[in-house]
Amino acid sequence: MHLTRPIRRGSARTRSRARRSLAAVAATVLAAGALVACSSDDGPGSTVDAFLSGWGKGDLQAVGFVTPAGLKVPAADVTRQLRELSGELADTPPALRRTGDPKVDANTATAGIRVAWSLPGGTPWEYDRQVRLTTGGDGQWRVIWEPQIVHEQLTDGDRIAVRRDAAPRAGVLDGAGEPIVTPRPVVRVGLQPSEVTDVKSVSRQLDAAFRAVRPAITPPVDLADLPKRLADADPGAFVEVVTLRAEAYRQIRSRIYDLPGTKFRAEKLDLAPTREFARALLGSVDQAQADDLAAHPDRYRQGDLVGHGGLQGRHDERLRGAPGLTVISERAGPDGTVAPTGTELFRQEPKPGQPVRTTLDVATQNAADAALRGEKRRAALVAVRVGDGAVLAAANGPGAAGENLAFTAQVPPGSTFKMVSALGLLDRGAVTLDGPVACPKTFTVDGRSFKNSDNFALGTVPFRTDFAKSCNTAFAALAPKLGPDGLAATGRALGLETEWDLGLDAFTGKVSAGGSPAEQAAAAFGQGTTLVSPLAMAAATAAVARGRWEQPKLVVDPAPAKAAPAGPQLKPESVEPLRTMMREVVTAGTATALKDAPGGPVHGKTGTAEYDDDPAHTHAWFVGWQGDVAFAVFVERGGSSGSSAVPIAERFLRALAAS
User: Where in this chain does the record put each Penicillin-binding protein dimerisation domain (predicted)?
Assistant: First the structure.
């Protein structure tokens, strides 16, 4: 038989004490569980995060490291090796982040990381790597240091290097879509020191020959340092003196070919049709200059081709494209020389530049350049197609001028502005073509006396005669009929003061408004505070010929984002008489030299503009059109338009007709 001990039930107090003990044990267990969960903050994940943070900052003292064999590595050594491995990118550490929770297996762990470099020019280079960790008896996680953390193809002693591959630069195209700059024949003229018997004599003869080239070489070839260069060079070297276009070389070949020591190399270079072809408008392409490198160290490198000025400068980013980048590894050899290992880590192919298409017409531009070729003063000629406002030519002189006066000059228009004043007067019914208007020798407004060129007087004549003969006093007397802002309103109808977008900077004019009676009188014949550019006046002239203003067009691809809308239709009853008067300027007025210009009837207006307080100091102008070509000629300090601007206009029209 079994003996059973009877069960004894305790008191209520005892049972309560027991329940409290169990609760305390449970609480202890829960607390222990909570501590285990919190300990993940000190696990491999936090160690990886500390490593990534220290990598970016260049300070890894908060992280422990061991080799794959388990030997401890000082944090300072890892910091140094990271910098050495980064090579050319050491000063721009990558952006780093952990890509997930580490995978733990006993006392080892593996964590994924994302490495994102920003290469020169902002090109991204991103890839994934893994960081291995281990923990010892102390419970501390340490990074297993190995160069492959930086990149899987790197080993100890390697360093990252970046190589740039220049992109093919695109060209500026003409209105027909053909490249303006193409490979053209040149001749490099040089000397071989060992064959030069008399340096001074050869230099003197070369200088005379170079000065005989037409159009003149601007700036002239400087031979001052030639004797020193020859003395410093190897006896058999080719010491270059100048590179000439083939047509320039042919002019002087007979003078220089047999000189002692001269040598010649025929090559091809990317060049415009002529040396002066739209030079200021197009700009130039040169090797990166010091200020380019300083302003954009991430964009340019020594030897890069960079656009300067004109369209080449404005659209440089589009034309140059994006260079290709190749990331490689390098290693120092036994002699300390660093050489590529042959391992390519990353490649981005160059992106060729995109062309910029313009409206320029080669024949018209050549005619404009030829017209200015003999002008020694600063001058500009801009031509616009009447039909659509396309800029056909923009020439600046003398020589291959660097400043685009055709677009950016801010100068008084002189009597060419009578075209605008006359349109305003006709619009208001203040004058008629044959209505009588007095042209006295002088006319005084508020104590200011106005006179005509050479102090002429016509008496009372039809308004058309006042216009054709360019009578200042007649227009000064008519100024009140325009009102304080009537001239500005008419100017705006012809595109002046309007905000244009044609792919290159241009001054659109500033017309006098709201001035004193004397200022209004001066403004009526293009003096006072009114300022214009040759392009603005050519566009206004084209508007008269067309019957409506259209914004000039220069760059058509990429298309301007904010081209100005067309102006209002000009009143036929006003613009037709104006055209008649502008024809009479040529047939019976101040520009009769253009009567026999080939190519059809010429309409126009001459202008002489005072630019300071001395009436003898004047710019010269002519604006007009023939057929579908409107144009403006400006000569700085040109004096009488009949002796400077009109002859240039004639040369332009004759060259255009012959093209």
Answer: 166-329
